[in-house]
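Moderator note: this is an archived Q&A kept for reference. The question asked for a predicted structure of one protein chain; the sequence and the answer are reproduced below.
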Amino acid sequence: MKNSSIQGDSLTGSFLISTPQMPDPRFEEHVIYICAHNSEGAMGVAVNQPHPLFTLPEILQGAGMEIPDMELPPVYIGGPVEMESAFILFSSNYETEHKLEISETVSLTRETRVLEDISRGRGPDNYLFILGYTGWGPGQLENELVANGWLNVPGDDSIIFSLEDSMKWKAAAMQFGIDITTFEDVIGYA
């Protein structure tokens, strides 16, 4: 399901796909889902960067929660900011009181009850457990877009929740006919 909630100048609900010209190596082949964007800056989470050291069963066990009898998704590195902070990006068919509605179909929360529901097998149908986030101050993201470090396209729930992580970077761009691996030959501005 495509997520076409981009309104006005806000990039909320869209993907930022790092281009081969990305000057910051920490974001090589990243797909960032923008959760909030306004005059005060922007905040997003990487949706294709599994954490090499942590697993969700380990996190649940460390929090004293049950480990459900089902396959759990990996833990993701959302970005370099506040790596000790945990977020759950989830399909909005699951209801919780404290959430940031990103689109009609995707929300973000830090509410512990959601993790407890996941541990009991009653959580959202689709979710990513994410440590850290990516943030930009006022005007910073817009400047990076002009410098062609990022390609901006509408977000797509199926890429976030259903695709293998290794395929997300290329697929996010390819949905618009863009081969991101040869993006240096195509220059555009946001």
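Archived answer notes: DSSP finds five helices and nine strands in the chain.
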